[in-house]
Amino acid sequence: MSSNPIATPLGTTLSTPSPTELQDQDPLAAEAEKASMPHSHSTQALKHIYLVVATTPCKNGRLGIGMNGKLPWPMIRADMDYFKKVTRDGSGTGTYDGSVGKVSNSVIMGRKTYESIPPRFRPLAGRNNVIVTRSKPMDVARSILDDLEKQAGDARGKRAELERKQAESPTATVTQQLKMAEAEFEVVSNDETNTVAVRSKIEGVVPGVTIGSNLRSAAEHCLSQSGEVYCIGGAEIYNAFLKDETLRPKLRILQTEIRKLKDDEEFECDTFWPEDLEDAQNGWSEVQTGQLQKWTRVEPPQGASVDWKDDEKVGVRLRVRGWEPKS
Ligand SMILES: NC(=O)c1ccc[n+]([C@@H]2O[C@H](COP(=O)([O-])OP(=O)(O)OC[C@H]3O[C@@H](n4cnc5c(N)ncnc54)[C@H](OP(=O)(O)O)[C@@H]3O)[C@@H](O)[C@H]2O)c1
């Protein structure tokens, strides 16, 4: 294990204040300080953190987001495509082939949400994956290393089949699995940022994962990078962002609303979105149609429009909405 600086969102050598300094600072003083800093810091002051969430109304009056550690609904292709397009390609930074390019977006998530992603889709391709945990980052890193090495072993075992599929009809998943077959992983700790990265030894081939235990620090580091910053849940992490008075003014919310087509039925949920966006007292305003596309710079895919669209196959209707803090 080395302690060299590493090329990951939390691993780069930065001159931003230390996590403790950030937490101790008065938010306004911190903003003013950032505004007077060199390029990356003033960019950071202008950047936003997008909370990307899919919600469903529940009888308890709350918006459900999860059930038993997974999503409450079956796979909804339009929502998955929208999530991928926004977080991977939003602002035109996507690398499209699943690797991490020079400019990639960052996705910040809780440890449980990372574990809820089906193994063949994690780490999320073409994005810098950033996980927060209250446990020791090294412990989480070791378990992720085991997971990635298993995935690489499985991919090597079926390399011939993957190569045949790639020749016949290539898909992003097959491309990613072939890259996985080539990958060897290493764990690198960065004492300066108190983070641990699990990354491919060949840089950029498979997206790396960076694990840290300070949410504010993770967000600030991601903001200082070139790509966009997305918080992709779950409930604990959304809540922590919403409650952080320094980060809150930077937040924008990208919400996909999902309802069952049968009005009297609902999805059972045990995990909920923390705040009522419709309640004026909470200080959110919905953005106008068209503003969403300006934010994300991607078209809402068919079925995930700003108007309700029915997906008869899954038995749901969905629409996308955007929210920003009231000025
Ligand atoms: N509908 C959606 O859009 C959506 C999106 C994402 C997730 N989900 C669903 O939401 C559920 C998971 O949400 P969740 O709230 O249970 O878990 P989560 O927010 O994904 O992860 C919680 C974990 O994150 C770490 N953590 C939380 N707050 C932290 C902080 N302030 N600093 C450092 N680490 C922190 C802790 O990890 P340790 O335990 O390791 O200490 C904690 O156990 C799943 O059902 C998932 O499918 C839904």
UniProtKB/TrEMBL annotation:
The keyword Mitochondrion does not apply. PROSITE patterns: DHFR_1 (PS00075), DHFR_2 (PS51330). It comes from the Eukaryota. It is an enzyme of class 1 (oxidoreductase). Its EC number is 1.5.1.3. Gene3D superfamilies: Dihydrofolate Reductase, subunit A. The keyword Oxidoreductase applies. It holds the Pfam family DHFR_1. Residues 8-20 have a biased composition (Low complexity). Signal peptide: none annotated. Pathway: Cofactor biosynthesis; tetrahydrofolate biosynthesis; 5,6,7,8-tetrahydrofolate from 7,8-dihydrofolate: step 1/1. Residues 1-23 are annotated as: Disordered. Keywords: NADP, One-carbon metabolism, Oxidoreductase. Residues 48-325 form the DHFR domain. Belongs to the dihydrofolate reductase family. This is Dihydrofolate reductase. It comes from Knufia obscura.
